[in-house]
Design goal:
There is one protein chain. The chain is mainly alpha-helical. The chain has 2 domains: 37 residues, no CATH class; 188 residues, no CATH class. 81% of the residues lie in helices and 0% in strands. The chain is built from 8 helices and no strands. It is extended and about 55 Å long. The termini are far apart.
Length: 236
């Protein structure tokens, strides 16, 4: 984004605009400053939301998987399980968006040459299934050296490893990047991963709400029972 150009256009619009336009732009600027002032409180709220999601993930996924897998002879440390989970999500999502990208590319080819052709997507589905299974078995039975930050880096920038080879091949090997203007690997990847994270956080929020409702209900029930029986509740 060219900030100098944006600022110049803002100034030009302000000078050329009528009174209503200027008032609207000033009000928008004030609202923006107000939003920035409230940013700290919003960060606190989102921090709690995200931390709830992490705690939910650990309680309802990490611990049960480690416990159940040990029965089958698969032994994971928490770090191994985190890396296996992140890597599996990257692989499955990456194969998914590459399959969609191929469908878009072949649609463009069909429209350009007037002959309908369809891609063979079997390779992407096989990799999406076999690679995560192999990874989990390797971590469960073996004792590999893990570099968590490399896994995090790959997870954050996974679309780069898809797009850069296509760009290089288009530039130096005569490969045509058919889906370039009609499909975004970056946007699709981050939407899928973001939706998954949001879903986990929402489940955590729902779980917290249910637990918050259940615990007071238990206390109310204990009070009612004590009143009927005529006994006093022992302090916790």
């Amino acid at each position: 984004m060219n900030f100098d150009k944006e600022i110049g256009e803002f100034k030009s619009s302000f000078r050329q605009g009528n009174a209503l336009t200027k008032v609207t732009m000033v009000m928008g600027f004030i609202l923006t400053l107000t939003s920035l002032a409230e940013l700290s409180s919003k960060i606190v709220v989102w921090k709690g939301f995200i931390l709830s999601g992490i705690e939910f993930y650990k309680s309802f996924f990490v611990e049960p998987v480690i416990s159940i897998a040990s029965i089958a002879g698969l032994h994971y440390s928490e770090l191994e399980l985190h890396v296996a989970t992140i890597s599996s999500i990257c692989i499955v999502t990456g194969m998914r968006i590459q399959a969609i990208g191929q469908q878009v590319a072949f649609r463009e080819i069909s429209e350009r040459y007037g002959n309908e052709v369809k891609p063979n997507l079997l390779f992407y589905w096989v990799v999406a299934v076999v690679a995560p299974i192999g990874l989990w078995l390797w971590y469960g039975f073996g004792n590999p050296t893990i570099y968590p930050w490399w896994s995090v880096f790959a997870a954050l920038f996974f679309p780069v490893f898809i797009v850069i080879p296509k760009i290089l091949m288009a530039k130096f090997a005569g490969y045509e990047f058919f889906e370039q203007n009609n499909f975004s690997y970056f946007k699709s990847y981050y939407i899928y991963v973001g939706a998954l994270i949001l879903f986990i956080c929402m489940l955590a929020a729902i779980n917290s709400g249910i637990r918050g409702d259940v615990e007071p209900s238990k206390e109310a029930a204990e009070v009612s029972i004590s009143l009927v029986i005529g006994t006093e509740l022992k302090p916790a």
